[in-house]
Amino acid sequence: MSTQKGGYTPSLEKFLDGLKSRPVQASVDLLVSLLKRRQIKGSEACATATAHILLQIVARDKWTNVDQLLGRIQLIGRKLVAAQPHELATGNIVRRILGLIRDEASEDRNDATTDSLRPASPPVPVPSQTSSPQKPVRPPALASIGSFARTQSMFNLLSDPNVFPSTGSNTSTPGQVSGASTPILNPQATNVSALRSEVIDGIQEIMDEIKMVDEQVQTYADIFIHTGDYILVYQPSRMVQKFLARAASKRKFTVFLVVDPSSAIDADNQYASLFKSMVSSGSNVITILNAGLMAYMSRVDKVILGARAITAQGGVVVDAGAAAIARAARERRRSVIVLGGVYKLSPECKLLPESQIEWGDPSKYVRFADGSLVSHVKVKNAVSEFLPADHVDTYVTNLGAHAQENLHTIITDHYKEEDIKFELYGKAQR
Amino acid sequence: MQRIVATYHRLLADDPELTMPMATIEALIEALGASSATTVFETMKLVEGQSERLRESPQVANPMAVCHGSDFFKQYLVRELRQLPSSAGAASKDQQFEEIRQHLLRNARLFATRAKESREQIASEGRLLIPDNSTILTHGGSRVVSMLLGRAAERVNGSLPRRFKVIYAISESRRAESERAVATLREKGIRVAIIPEGGVAHIMQQVNIVIVGAEVITAQGGIISRLGTYQIAKLAKIDRKPFYVAAEQHKLGQTFPTSQFNYGVPAFKQDLLDFQSNKSPNGNVANGLTADEKRAIEVQSANPVDFTPPDLITNFICDHGIKSTVAMEHQVIDMFVS
Q1: Cβ neighbours of residue B10 under 8 Å, at least 6 residues apart?
Q2: Global ipTM
Q3: What is the per-residue burial (b if ≥16 Cβ within 10 Å, else e) of B28-51?
Q4: Distance in angstroms (rounded) separating the CA atoms of residues B293 and B260
Q5: B111 and A119: CB-CB below 8 Å?
Q6: I want to staple A309 with a disulfide (CB 3.0 to 4.6 A). Which of A317, A381, B99, B200 is the partner?
Q7: pLDDT for res A19
C-alpha cells in the first residue's frame, strides 16, 4: 500500500502548488481523484483543499450573476462530497461558502436599493443597510439575524403569497411559497467584480480560520487541564498534542498516551515532540497499550479526544478505538472532552451513524505476504468510528467550550437554512 | 353564542387532515371575517376574546392546542404590525392593517394547504432517518407519521424505497383509528405487525427506532400527545432506542407542563383517575363541580393525552429540519419573548 514514489506522491501541498497554473476544471478533476484515492485525507486537509478550489472557481470562472455562481459551487460541492463522503469537512466548507456568497449578495442588493428589502425584525431594525457599508465581520452578522431566521420558517405559514419580503407592492411572483430559498430579485444589478472580491476575502477568512484552529483551541488548555491531573489521550492528533503541550507549559500533570498495539512500534518517533515538550516542563507521559486500558481508567481524570468530525446532534467521528475508550470512561464516570474546530461541525443531520464508520487498509494487522490468511479470511479494519453524543461531556472548538445542547446555535450562526437543506450528500452514503 | 366553538369543531370534522392549532387559526380568521372590527385595537381584542372563549370551552378536547394556535396567530399579527413603516400616522396604520386583515381572510384555505404541505416536508426529512432493513415502532393515529412511513416506502426522485417493517402499538380504546392507519400502511406494501400497548416492553428489543406524532410541542421541547406516548418513550429510553417525534412546527407553543398532572393550562381538566368502590359508587366526580366542568372532564378524558418530557426525545423531525429538543425550546423563546 505505502509504495514510496519518492517525491512524486501527490499531496495537499503539491496540489495547492499547482493550483494557479492549472485550468480550474483540471484542478477540480485532480482534487476529486486525490480525494477518491485518499491521497488527501483528514478533515483539515480536505477543508483546506475545498476552500482553495472554491476560491479558484470564484476568482477565475466566468459568472455574471449570483445564481450562476451558487449553482456552480453547488455542482462542484456535490462532486467533491461524492468523491469522499466520509470527510464531512468538505461539505461544511462548501456550505459555508454558499452562505457567504448569499450574504455578500444580499448586502450588495441592500446597498444598491434604498428600500428596505428585508423586513426589519425588532432586534435588527433598519441599521443593517445604513450602518454597515464597511467590511462586516462574518459570524456576528449572521448571528444577529439568528433568532430572526429561527422563527421565520414558522411565520412562513401565514405569510402572504403575493408579497415578498419587499414593502407591500405587487411584485407578483406566484408559485414561490416558502421563503426558504432567498429570492435573488435582480441579480444583474449586483456588481460582479465587487462581489467577487468580497467573496474571495470571505473565503480567505475561512482559510485563516482553518489554519488558526489549533492555536485557538489550545488557548483553552489551562481551563481544562489542572495540576496533578491524569489525562488520557488516544493517538493524539496534532491539535491534541498542542493542547497538551500548552497546558504543560503552565501545569504539571500526567498523560496516559494510549496507542494501538499495531502502531506501538513507531509510537516513540511519532510522538517524540510531545514527549519532549511534556518532559521538559516536568510532566509525565506514560505509554500504554489499548488492551490494558480499563485498568488505568480508575486513575484517569479526563479523556481528551480529537474529532475527525462533529455531527449536528453532537455525535463525533473519531479514530477507530476511541469510542471504546469513551465507553470505558463513561463506565467510570470520567469526563470526555472532544477537541475540534468549528469547521468540523457538520450541519448535516440526516446521516446515519453506521455510515460514518470508515473501513480501510487492514495491512497493519495481516500482511499481504501471509498468503493463507489473505485468501481465506476476510479482515476488516475500521479507520474511524462514531461516538454517540451521550458519551461526550464537552466540546472545545476555536470558539470555546460548548455543551451538546448549544451546538445547534453554532450551526445557525455559521450556516444558512437553505444551504443546510441543500442535498449535498445525495445518494453518496445511502 | 359559542359560534367559534362550533366553527372549530366543524373545521376539524370537515377536514380530517387538519391539525388542531391550524383549525384554531382558521376559526379565528373566520371570526375575524364575521366581525365588524376595523382598527388594530378592536381586532386584537376580538382575537383575544375569541381564543379565550374557544380555550375555555368545555367541548374542546385539547385546550393546549388551541392556545398554541391562537398564540401563534396573535404573534403573527403583532409581528406584522411591527413591520409596518413607523412613519405613517395612526389612521394610515389602521388602513395598512386592513390590508393584512384582507390577506388573512383571503388566504385562510391556503394556510391549511401549506400546513399539510409541511407534512410532505417532514416525510422527506424523516425518510433518511430510517435505517436499512429496520423495524419501526409507532402508535396512535398520527397523520404525520403515516405520511412519513408511506412516503418512505415509495420511490422518490429516483431514490429507492426504504426497506423497513412497522410495529404498531394499538390501544383498545382507540382501536378503530389505529386499525385504519394500519390498513393504509399495509395497502402501501409495508409489513405491519400489531401489538397491544401492554406488549411494548416485550417487543422493544426488535425495534430499531421509534417514531411518534404529537398534538402539541411544549415550551421545554417536550410533547403532549396521545396517552401511551410517555410510556413508549420511557421504554425506548431504557433500551436506548432513538425516539423521534414527527411534528409540524406550528404545533409549537408556550405550554409548560411541570408534571403529568399539571400542564399549566387551567382549562385542561383531564382526570383519568376515577377512584371507585362499592360503598361510594359515584367516585370522586360528585363534589361540587359545575355542569361545564363535568362536561370538560368528560370530553377531555375521552381523548386522553400525556406529557413526554424532552429528555426522553432524541430529536424532532420537523418541516424545517431535524431539530433537537433544545432547538425547539429556543424557537419558542425567539417567538414569544423577543
Answers
A1: none
A2: 0.70
A3: bbbbbeeeebeebeebbebbeebb
A4: 20
A5: no
A6: A317
A7: 84
Q: Which residues of chain B have pLDDT under 50?
A: 1
Per-residue b/e over B228-238, b at no fewer than 16 CB within 10 Å? bbbbbbbbbbe
What's the whole-number mean pLDDT along residues A116-121? 40
What's the rounded Cα separation, in Å, for the pair B293 and B299?
Answer: 10
Nearest to B75 by CA among B220, B250, B227: B250
What is the average pLDDT across A4-13?
64
Query: Which residues face A286 on adjacent strands?
Result: A256
A-chain residues within 8 Å CB-CB of B335? 151, 154
- pLDDT of A312: 86
Q: Span A219-411: which CATH code?
A: 3.40.50.10470
Domain ranges of chain A: 8-167+175-212, 219-411
Query: Which residues make Cβ contacts (< 8 Å) with residue A327, sequence separation at least 6?
Result: A391
Q: What is the pLDDT of residues B250-308, one digit of tens each?
A: 999 999 999 999 898 888 888 888 888 887 666 555 567 788 888 888 888 888 899 99
DSSP states of A65-124: SHHHHHHHHHHHHHHHHHH-TT-HHHHHHHHHHHHHHHHHHHHHHHHH--S--SPPPSSS
B40 closest CA partner among B85, B87, B80: B80
Cβ contacts of A372 within 8 Å, gap of 6 or more: none
Interstrand relation of B216-217 and B223-226 (parallel, antiparallel or unpaired): antiparallel
**Would you state the pLDDT for residue A426?**
61
The verdict on a CB contact (< 8 Å) between B99 and A168 is yes
Helices marked H in A309-370: 322-331
Q: What's the gap in Å between the CA of B250 and the closest CA on chain A? A: 7
Question: Number of C-alpha atoms within 13 angstroms, CB side, residue A262?
Answer: 11
- Out of 3.30.43.10, 3.40.50.10470, 3.40.50.10310, 3.40.640.10, the CATH code matching B123-336 is 3.40.50.10470
Q: Check if the beta carbon of residue A48 is closer than 8 Å to that of residue A207.
A: yes
* Best residue in A95, A154, A386, A412 for a mutation probing chain B (most B CBs within 10 Å): A154
Boundaries of every domain in chain B: 3-116, 123-336
